[in-house]
Amino acid sequence: MSSVIWYLYEFARKSWAEKFAAAKTDPEIMETPSRFRNFPKVHKEYCISCGACTAACPAPMAIKLVRDGDSSDGEGSAYPVINNRGCIRCGFCAEVCPTDPKTLTCGENHLIREEFTIVPVDKMLVIDDYLCIRCKKCMESCKIDGAIVEEDNKIAIDQTKCIACGDCLKTCPVKGAIKGIHIANVEEQKTVINLIVNTLEERIDIEQEKIKDLGPGKVLSIDMPVDELAVKAREIIPDDDLVTDLIEKMTDRLKLRIVTWDKEKCKNCRLCVDECPSGAITYDEEKGVQRNKDKCLRCSICYQTCPFGVAGFYIARFLLDKMDKTALDDYVIHITLKASQLPIRS
């Protein structure tokens, strides 16, 4: 009973009542520190729809990208939406957001390391210096500062900053100058690339007689359907999009040197035998001059050396035609061959 009376007495004290009525929060508690992680705020006008935030979020269903509907004013924009019931306020989404100003803000975290800001992607964009014309349109379209740079008169992509959004790919005026490289299934991709080259060479070999008749300035056109090649490629990589991407890259860049050999013109002078750097051309007393095409480097030395025109030297180029077609099996590779402009040694 005495303890209850004591509590009532303390509660009734005037000094305690005055303190209770005039109670105020400590100013340090009222001011939120910069490192405080609240639920992320979304500034959708800055969003470039890269998906970095969704890739970095460790909480299931805490963040997703949504897209506004298209209107007469233009295409609808995409931006992230935060589900506060799932968000754990870790702030990773804000850390990896590459835009400046940031689309997502929720306080600073001074412990996040730089390597955490690299967004994992299945495709890596690279610039093909052979095809690049240095117009710098890719640099102008890139929304990430420093992702595309110019070094030693060459345009390059910094893979630590690139988010593979594809804006540079859409802007580039030269087909194939910017390529999307799939960073998965690398060994399988190499096998498919070899398959593509070998298949194209086999198709060209069928036309050897027509190629020999090509005169200066003449062009031989060959159309090769992709269906058989696609069947073999799918056995290696069962992904039509990836196979199509590989075929298109190869045909954009590939230039094959073709050497023909007209045995009937050979006089067995053996000039080519001594000049051949790989031993592909030999002499046999019974069979005469022989060429082993498997050892041939296609260096054109025999073509420039032979005074009788036994060796022919041609250039083959390729183009993947997928206009008005939706399936890989319906695509066609256009092959064009013409005589080389290399001089012949006199």
Description:
Mean pLDDT is 82; it is low at 110-119. The chain has three domains: 41-117, Alpha-Beta Plaits, CATH 3.30.70.20; 123-182, Alpha-Beta Plaits; 186-339, Alpha-Beta Plaits, CATH 3.30.70. It is of the alpha+beta class and 346 residues long. It is 29% helix and 21% strand. Helix 8 packs antiparallel against helix 10 and helix 8 crosses helix 11 (240-253).
Break the fold down into its secondary structure elements and pairings.
Elements: H1 2-12, H2 14-21, H3 27-30, E1 41-42, H4 52-56, E2 63-67, E3 78-82, H5 92-96, E4 104-105, E5 123-127, H6 137-141, E6 148-151, E7 154-157, H7 167-171, E8 178-182, H8 186-205, H9 208-212, E9 219-225, H10 227-236, H11 240-253, E10 255-261, H12 271-275, E11 281-284, E12 288-291, H13 301-305, E13 311-321, E14 332-339
Antiparallel strand pairs: 1-4, 2-3, 5-8, 6-7, 9-14, 10-13, 11-12, 13-14
InterPro entries: 4Fe4S_Fe-S-bd, 4Fe4S_Fe_S_CS, Fe-S_Ferredoxin
Pfam families: Fer4_10, Fer4_21, Fer4_7
Keywords: 4Fe-4S, Iron, Iron-sulfur, Metal-binding
